[in-house]
Amino acid sequence: MLTIHRVRAVEGAAAAGGDAAADAVVVDGARIAAIGPYEELYAAYGDRARVREWPGAVLTPGRHEPDGTSLLESAYHPDPREADSLGTEPLTGAALAALDMSETRWGASARRGLQRLLSTGTTSLTGAFTRPAVRTAVSRSGLRAHPVALAPGAPADFAVFAADGTCLVTALGGRLVYRRRG
C-alpha cells in the first residue's frame, strides 16, 4: 500500500530535483518510493495512496541508540502491574540486583525497554547483547543495527517529531510501530 506522509519538513534527505523543500515522503510497502514537495508527490501518487498528515511536524531518519546494552541488559523496565511496588522508571544498580531476574523476566523487560526507545523515535541501536532473551527481543523488534538514510529505495525507517520535540510516530519498514496517543 502506498502512503504519503505530509509534514512541515523532511530532514536528512534531499528532495527530488534538489531545489524544492521536501515536505512529504511516499512509502510503498517497506521502502521509500519518493521524497519531495507534497504537491508534486500527491499529483504523482495521490490517486492510489492514503495520506497521513502530521501538521507542523518534522520527519527524520530517526534516532540511533549506540548503547542498547546498558539500556536493555543493565536496567529492568518494570511491568505496569509492578508500578505500585517498583515504580515506573527503569531500575539499575542495587535495585536491579535485589530482583529475582529470570530469562523470561529479562525478555519482558527488554520488550518494554524497546517500546520506550521506539517512543523516542529510535530506529536503530547497537549493543553486545549477551542475554539470549534480550537478543531475541531486539532481533524481533525490527530495529536495525545501523541508521538508514532517507532515500528512495531505502527501508522506510523514520520518525516524525512534533514542534516541541516529542515523537509522534516511529516507523520501521513502513509500519507504524509507535504512535503517540492523544
The CATH superfamily label of the largest domain reads Urease, subunit C, domain 1
Query: If classified by CATH, what would the architecture of the largest domain be?
Result: Roll
For the record, give the distance between the C-alpha atoms at the N and C termini, rounded to a whole number. 26 Å
Identify low-pLDDT runs: none
Total tally of structural domains: 2
Main pleated-sheet profile: 5 strands, mixed
Helix content: 25-40%
Any idea of the CATH topology of the largest domain? Urease, subunit C, domain 1
Structural class: alpha/beta
> What order do the SSEs take from the amino end to the carboxyl end, as H and E?
EEEEHEEEHHHHEHEEE
Proportion of β residues? 25-35%
Mean of residue pLDDT values: 94
Number of discrete helical segments: 6
Oligomer: single chain
Count of extended strands: 11
How does the SSE layout of this entry go?
Blueprint: E1 2-6, E2 9-10, E3 24-28, E4 31-36, H1 38-45, E5 49-53, E6 58-60, E7 63-65, H2 68-72, H3 83-86, H4 93-97, H5 103-118, E8 122-125, H6 132-141, E9 158-161, E10 167-172, E11 175-179
Parallel strand pairs: 1-5, 2-6, 7-8
Antiparallel strand pairs: 1-3, 3-4, 6-9, 9-10, 10-11
Question: Can you walk me through this structure?
Answer:
Helices cover 26% and strands 26% of the residues. It has helices spanning 38-45, 68-72, 83-86, 93-97, 103-118, 132-141; strands at 2-6, 9-10, 24-28, 31-36, 49-53, 58-60, 63-65, 122-125, 158-161, 167-172, 175-179. The strands form 3 sheets. Strands 2-6-9-10-11 form a 5-stranded mixed β-sheet, with no helix packed on it. Strands 4-3-1-5 form a 4-stranded mixed β-sheet, covered by helices on one side. Strands 7-8 form a two-stranded parallel sheet. Helix 5 (103-118) runs parallel beside helix 6. The protein has 2 domains: 2-62 and 147-179, Urease, subunit C, domain 1 (Roll); 64-141, no CATH class. With 182 residues, it is of the alpha/beta class.
